[in-house]
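I would love for you to help me understand the pair of lines that follows before we discuss the fold together.
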Amino acid sequence: MVYMNVRDRESIQEAVRRFRKLVERSGLKREMRKREYYVKPSETIRHDRQRAIRRAKTAKLEGG
């Protein structure tokens, strides 16, 4: 949960800007996107393996 106190004489635009930064820094936005739809555990494992393979290929190419 993100809490924010609005300062005296702070415009709405400034408060909203500060709130957006707080939400982004807290990781809440990423968590909401992650939970937007259900992903089966088997799909998550498959995705992670494919990502590791891609990472290994790029590391191999960069390493020479």
User: Anything to note?
Assistant: The chain has one domain: 12-63.
